[in-house]
């Protein structure tokens, strides 16, 4: 599946649309603009829009149903964390393979498949980035390296600037913003996914928006 198709698809398993949906990038930009206004006016209680509704409960899905319903959403999440479509797809394949080995076809003993999958994608993406840093520290990048043919489709004008800025943040800042504005998770859900306190999530999100503002406003 091409990166453009991945971005055009809805975040929560609904029908695909035929055009890119920059909602998450717009939401980040609005948050940055709100930060600027609040800085000028002085502090006030933050307002956060309610996350969109998620599909009805699966009941007791098997791994095939879960894969069909959640794979695309998880690839999109991994893509924003690792910045590379083939690697993002590998991350999700590895997550589902590990899920099958641990819980079987009927997901025996797994109470919250969505939370398990999100946490697994984040942790596997972290492992990928650690290996990538290690390789780059010891192996010079090949001359003539260029993005894949699909990457320009991903980095459209309405997405590319925000994606590039996100990848200049710290890993934790990027994870918190992606989970909040892309996956539409609450502070409590982000805390569970990343193994942080809600206070740590809130302070990280605040610092991340300040850092993102600097990155978006910096001349290039």
Give a structural overview.
The structure is a single chain. The protein has 220 residues and is an all-alpha fold. Helix content is 65%, strand content 0%. The protein is built from ten helices and no strands. Helix 5 packs across helix 9. The two termini are 32 Å apart. Keywords: DNA-binding, Sigma factor, Transcription, Transcription regulation. Belongs to the sigma-70 factor family. ECF subfamily. This is SigE family RNA polymerase sigma factor.
Poorly predicted tracts of residues: 13-21, 43-58, 142-155
Strand content: under 5%
Share of helical residues: 55-70%
- Strand tally is 0
Averaging pLDDT over every residue, what do you get?
A: 77
Order of helices and strands: HHHHHHHHHH
Task: Give a quick precis of the structure.
The protein has 220 residues and is an all-alpha fold. The protein has helices at residues 3-8, 23-41, 63-82, 85-103, 113-138, 151-154, 157-166, 171-182, 187-194, 198-217.
Features:
RNA_pol_sigma_r2; about 65% helix; 10 helices; mainly alpha; RNA_pol_sigma_r3/r4-like; globular; SigE family RNA polymerase sigma factor; about 220 residues; DNA-binding
SSE blueprint:
Layout: H1 3-8, H2 23-41, H3 63-82, H4 85-103, H5 113-138, H6 151-154, H7 157-166, H8 171-182, H9 187-194, H10 198-217
Helix pairs in contact: 2-7, 2-10, 3-4, 3-5, 4-5, 5-9, 8-10, 9-10
